[in-house]
Amino acid sequence: MNTQVLKIQPNNDVNSLKVYVLIDDEQHEFTFSRQFDTIANKQLQIITHETSFGEIFRCNQHIVDEVMSIVRKFFQGENPTLPQDVGNFGTLEDALKLQKPFKKLPSGANI
Predict the structure, then answer these.
(1) pLDDT over 70 for what percent of the chain?
(2) From CA 60, how far away is CA 1, in angstroms rounded?
(3) Local structure of 61: helix, strand or coil
(4) Measuring CA to CA, which of 22, 70, 87, 96 is 20 to 30 A from 28?
(5) Within 10 A of 1 (CB to CB), how many other CB atoms are there?
(6) Is it the case that residue 98 has pLDDT exceeding 70?
(7) CA quadruple 84, 19, 88, 24: dihedral sign
């Protein structure tokens, strides 16, 4: 199923965004937030997403990576072109079909 980031909308808090994602023909809304931390005198931007985002895309890490990249750009002041395709959403069943079976070792074989 094709997956797209439809739009990104700032919340009242400058460190929080609403991200609208379309999976096939079903729209989802997720909240992303950022905070800053300093390590070795360098300021780092840490972006997190709500738990439901991770749950929905747990078998689709490639989509998580693409969405995080778009969100990072938005937080940095860039305006990425939207809507933007972020990959094909695969179900758990799809992932299981792609797995290769383990070969059984002959009895007594050492690894």
Answers:
(1) 92
(2) 11
(3) helix
(4) 96
(5) 14
(6) no
(7) negative
